[in-house]
Amino acid sequence: MGEILDAGQPGSLSQAVTDGALRLDEGVAERCIGACDALLAELDALGAEFNSGQWRPRFGAFSVGEELAVKFEKLANGPEGSLRVALLSHIEVVKQMRDLFEAAGRAYREAEEANAARLAAVGDSL
What we know:
Elements: H1 13-19, H2 28-54, H3 63-77, H4 83-125
Helix pairs in contact: 1-4, 2-4
């Protein structure tokens, strides 16, 4: 996965959340989580369509058509650089992003609650 999400890497979003350095306005994390959920639903639907066999290329009964079908099948299902590998990679990154936004939203709520408690304590002492 990319550097931007790698926990513990200086400058990564995960590290910024851990350090409390990522600042989000109220509701932003929830909107980002919603966007991640929508994208995951689209990617899952694409994966389901892909797994259903609808992606099997057909180029006629001639030998050239069969050779093309084999090449396209490798592009779709091959072990490296295939559509399947790219799709799974995208799904994993979006899941990581969703987790990151959940953590950022949780940190925001915890900070708000702590600030409210401190303000209440100050108000009580007056």
